[in-house]
Amino acid sequence: MEVGFLGLGIMGKAMALNLLRHGFKVTVWNRTLSKCDELVEHGASIGETPAAVVKKCKYTIGMLSDPSAALSVVFDKDGLLEQICSGKGYIDMSTVDANTSSKISEAVTKKGGDFLEAPVSGSKKPAEDGQLVILAAGESALYEEVLPAFNVMGKKSFFLGQVGNGAKMKLVVNMIMGSMMNAFSEGLVLADSSGLNQQTLLDVLELGAIANPMFKMKGPAMIQNNYSPAFPLKHQQKDMRLALALGDENGVSMPVAAAANEAFKKARSQGLGDHDFSAVYETGKVPERSV
Ligand SMILES: NC(=O)C1=CN([C@@H]2O[C@H](COP(=O)(O)OP(=O)(O)OC[C@H]3O[C@@H](n4cnc5c(N)ncnc54)[C@H](OP(=O)(O)O)[C@@H]3O)[C@@H](O)[C@H]2O)C=CC1
Ligand SMILES: O=CCCC(=O)O
């Protein structure tokens, strides 16, 4: 199967490499073209523009940073709309809101193409290991056709019905995750400030009812102030913002998520946007008290 891939950031690079490793023919494009080089070393071809990729491939996957990037590769000059047509499919795996997804879906289907949104749960390591959870929605026939690619990139795929449902599910999941990360960060600060050992807190958490892989994976690095990015904080804040907008649309009160969003905004304003989202921990730290 020949697959196009637009967007070779942390996630896109790992996902495209997985496809190559499993024998897919992959044509890649990235806004910063030099990021294609490593993929070419692993056997990928380069498309000079999103339109050139779609012209060559029956199926094209997008993994872009945010709604504006996701729209740009579709609607801008040399964008995929210039080549999408009957018999071709576009699968947008970026995390965006349902509105953005619907705009893309309408434009693609108007040109005769098929569209699937398929955001993912799971971060850099699961992307490298082909262990993502795929939250697809849109054209069910296209879903069936691209399942071989999903099976390589992920450990489980869900088909959630009409376009928008994948985006919404992803935002709900990340809203919960972002709120949890803030509670976890506050707990680490409180433990430290009240004279407790943070590693002992991690050990206690792991044995109890709120044990979870995120605390286990991020905790040891956080207490070493290591925020090497797997999931950039700026993207987590984008997801909190989009989830809060979804809450607004549905009249859902989300005071915990709103507070978490404020903490992520503060972290961004402190220059932590490109660090891992666990760097929100920095915003809660108590300045050294003078005696
Ligand atoms: N990292 C993670 O753990 C996860 C991320 N996600 C989601 O996946 C998506 C990608 O995340 P991730 O790989 O971490 O992000 P990165 O920031 O590492 O990569 C973003 C990608 O988007 C491209 N891009 C940004 N702006 C534009 C634009 N205006 N036009 C064209 N391309 C653009 C970048 O190109 P360039 O290289 O030129 O900057 C890059 O390829 C996001 O929606 C994120 O929320 C989902 C699950 C997990
Ligand atoms: O969108 C990013 C999700 C990160 C994760 O699921 O660990």
Automatic annotation (TrEMBL):
GO terms for molecular function: glyoxylate reductase (NADPH) activity; NAD binding; NADP binding. Residues 2-161 form the 6-phosphogluconate dehydrogenase NADP-binding domain. It catalyses: 4-hydroxybutanoate + NADP(+) = succinate semialdehyde + NADPH + H(+); glycolate + NADP(+) = glyoxylate + NADPH + H(+). InterPro entries: 3-OH-isobutyrate_DH-rel_CS, 6-PGluconate_DH-like_C_sf, 6PGD_dom2, 6PGDH_NADP-bd, HIBADH-like_NADP-bd, HIBADH-related, HIBADH-related_NP60_sf, NAD(P)-bd_dom_sf. Keywords: NAD, NADP, Oxidoreductase, Stress response. Residues 164-282 form the 3-hydroxyisobutyrate dehydrogenase-like NAD-binding domain. One of its GO terms (cellular component) is cytosol. The active site is at 170. Signal peptide: none annotated. PROSITE patterns: 3_HYDROXYISOBUT_DH. Belongs to the HIBADH-related family. NP60 subfamily. Catalyzes the NADPH-dependent reduction of glyoxylate to glycolate as well as succinic semialdehyde (SSA) to gamma-hydroxybutyrate in vitro. May function in redox homeostasis and play a role in oxidative stress tolerance by detoxifying glyoxylate and SSA generated in glycolate metabolism and GABA metabolism, respectively. This is Uncharacterized protein. It comes from Tetracentron sinense (Spur-leaf).
